[in-house]
Amino acid sequence: MSTTLTVEGMSCGGCEQTVVEALESVSGVTHAEADRETNSATVEGDADVDALVQAVVDSGYDASA
């Protein structure tokens, strides 16, 4: 399953990496990518969407599904 989140606040590659690491720490995630140009993150796996959003928020960015 693929899930796309809107992520606000990423301004550099380091931001993208922080978001990816936060998403990949969520149980059920098999792969994650973040793109500051499109303000989005794409997640592969069967993780709970609310857990994904919370992981991004906890890492310092605004996120929504």
UniProtKB/TrEMBL annotation:
Residue ranges of every copy of the HMA domain listed in the record: 1-64
Pfam families: HMA (PF00403)
InterPro entries xrefs: HMA_dom, HMA_dom_sf
GO terms, molecular function: metal ion binding
Signal peptide range: none
PROSITE patterns found in the cross-reference section: HMA_2
CDD domains registered for this protein in UniProt: HMA
Source superkingdom: Archaea
Transmembrane portions of the chain: none
Protein name as it appears in the record: Heavy-metal-associated domain-containing protein
Naturally occurring in which organism (per UniProt): Halapricum salinum
